[in-house]
């Protein structure tokens, strides 16, 4: 897998005073974004938002100090793109967990300044001989990332073939918090969930979520906004979504 040259990326897609392509962790090329609202980094490897931090605030996204930053290995932190399956492959455990999108090199399709001086980058991934050995379908996958007073991420799937396919996926976001004992999560009250750490039992959430230990829960039929309240950082992270019917709450 080969990355385009930084000079060529900046010539075609650099945005003066807002977006430039630089060497990121492990030498992987990233789009470094800085505008009047925030700064962020987006890796072409994996179409992966590595960081997002509004000015004068703590980082919103967390990354592991033990993360790998090399081709062929997934990065741990930020917002990995899990696609075209989430978790283990449903029938073949030898295939990579969470699919291949997060370990593929994405192409830059567009960079632009949008309303309110926000910065937008759009990346694309298409089927190749390599992807078809893992998942025998033709497709176009696009991720659009808008960095402003909030962070917006849109994942769009197109079937460019003549046969139907099914897929699953996730924007596997890691959020920075002061400490699990200082947070509560709102918006999933009275929602049925699968407890992955209790033999997949189905349970119903009683009140806001407080975390004191390892958890891995898949909340079903969800479309409401969630909110992470952090009493130590004195901030609220609002998580709004459309087009997804489940929400995962998990701690690394």
Brief digest:
The protein has 252 residues and is mostly beta strands.
Describe this structure in words.
The protein is mainly β and 252 residues long. The protein has 2 domains: 1-176, Beta-galactosidase, Chain A, domain 5 (Distorted Sandwich); 178-252, no CATH class. Helices cover 6% and strands 38% of the residues. It has a 4-stranded antiparallel beta sheet with strand order 1-2-3-4. A 4-stranded antiparallel beta sheet has the order 6-7-8-9, with no helix packed on it. The chain has a 4-stranded antiparallel beta sheet with strand order 14-11-16-17, with no helix packed on it. The longest helix is centred in the first third of the chain and has 8 residues, at 6-13. It starts with 5 loop residues before the first helix and ends with a strand.
User: How many separate domains make up the residues?
Assistant: 2
CATH class group of the largest domain: Mainly Beta
Helix share bin: under 10%
How far do the termini sit from each other?
A: 29 Å
Q: So, CATH architecture of the largest domain?
A: Distorted Sandwich
Q: Low-confidence stretches at least 5 residues in length (pLDDT < 50)? A: none
Put simply, the count of helices is 2
- C-alpha geometry: globular
Beta percentage is 35-45%
Average pLDDT works out at 97
Strand tally: 18
What is the radius of gyration? 19 Å
Strand arrangement, major sheet: 1-2-3-4
N to C succession of SSEs: HEEEEEEEHEEEEEEEEEEE
């Amino acid at each position: 897998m080969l990355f385009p040259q930084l000079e060529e990326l900046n010539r075609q897609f650099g945005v003066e005073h807002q977006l430039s392509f630089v060497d990121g962790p492990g030498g992987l090329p990233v789009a470094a974004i800085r505008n009047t609202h925030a700064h962020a980094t987006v890796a072409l490897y994996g179409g992966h938002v590595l960081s997002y931090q509004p000015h004068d605030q703590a980082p919103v996204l967390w990354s592991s100090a033990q993360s790998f930053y090399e081709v062929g290995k997934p990065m741990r932190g930020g917002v990995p793109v899990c696609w075209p399956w989430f978790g283990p492959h449903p029938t073949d455990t030898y295939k990579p967990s969470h699919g291949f999108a997060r370990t593929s090199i994405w192409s830059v399709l567009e960079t632009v300044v949008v309303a309110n001086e926000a910065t937008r980058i759009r990346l694309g991934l298409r089927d190749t001989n390599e992807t078809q050995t893992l998942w025998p379908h033709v497709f176009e996958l696009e991720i659009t990332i808008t960095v402003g007073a909030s962070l917006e991420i849109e994942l769009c799937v197109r079937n460019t073939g003549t046969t139907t396919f099914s897929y699953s996926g996730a924007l596997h976001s890691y959020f920075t918090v002061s400490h699990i004992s200082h947070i509560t999560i709102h918006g999933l009250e009275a929602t049925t969930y699968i407890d992955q750490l209790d033999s997949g039992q189905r349970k119903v959430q009683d009140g806001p979520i407080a975390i004191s230990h390892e958890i891995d829960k898949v909340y079903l039929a969800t479309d409401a906004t969630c909110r992470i309240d952090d009493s130590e950082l004195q901030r609220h992270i609002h998580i709004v979504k459309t087009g997804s019917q489940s929400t995962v709450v998990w701690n690394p």
